[in-house]
């Protein structure tokens, strides 16, 4: 039984590590996207002043709006990574691992639930497995959103690079 508990702890720690890393990546992407959008807003007038033909100006403005939208999409997915999630799994008993269920109990109730969990080790293992499953679902959703945020960021970066090249070559 101790070996099962050790393995469950290892799995929980590993998933927690992945969740933490996805949150860190999302925070970094949020920072980069915000900086780029700030740069785009601050440099918009300078960029628009280089253009003289109205059709090119409309095309460039469209490019500019598309770039902004793509970076906003990347920000959206980054925020979705950082958004807290709660368990959707219902147990017939109170979990001694899940923070929301722990918070709903007073000290005596939690102590009793904790003691009872060790009376039936099979329920303890099942409780840990339910938490592992729930953490895995949360981690999967976070990683999906990190992936989408990175994809939007890269696409936005490529289009921004092309946009800057067009503006620089038109200005020469």
UniProtKB/TrEMBL annotation:
The keyword Transmembrane helix applies. The keyword Membrane applies. The chain crosses the membrane at residues 26-42, 62-82, 152-171. It holds the Pfam family PycTM. One of its GO terms (cellular component) is plasma membrane. It is found in: Cell membrane. Its main location: membrane. InterPro entries: PycTM_dom. This is Pycsar effector protein domain-containing protein. The gene is phiCDHM19_gp42.
């Amino acid at each position: 039984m101790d070996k099962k508990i050790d393995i469950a702890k290892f799995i929980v720690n590993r998933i927690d590590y992945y969740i933490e890393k996805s949150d860190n990546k999302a925070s970094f992407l949020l920072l980069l996207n915000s900086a780029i959008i700030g740069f785009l807003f601050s440099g918009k007038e300078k960029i628009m002043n280089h253009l003289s033909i109205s059709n090119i100006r409309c095309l460039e403005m469209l490019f500019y709006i598309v770039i902004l939208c793509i970076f906003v999409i990347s920000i959206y997915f980054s925020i979705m990574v950082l958004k807290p999630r709660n368990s959707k799994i219902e147990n017939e008993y109170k979990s001694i691992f899940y923070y929301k269920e722990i918070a709903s109990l007073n000290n005596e109730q939690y102590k009793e639930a904790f003691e009872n969990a060790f009376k039936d080790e099979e329920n303890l293992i099942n409780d840990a497995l339910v938490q592992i499953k729930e953490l895995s679902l949360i981690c999967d959703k976070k990683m999906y959103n990190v992936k989408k945020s990175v994809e939007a960021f890269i696409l936005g970066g490529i289009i921004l690079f092309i946009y800057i090249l067009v503006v620089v070559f038109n200005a020469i």
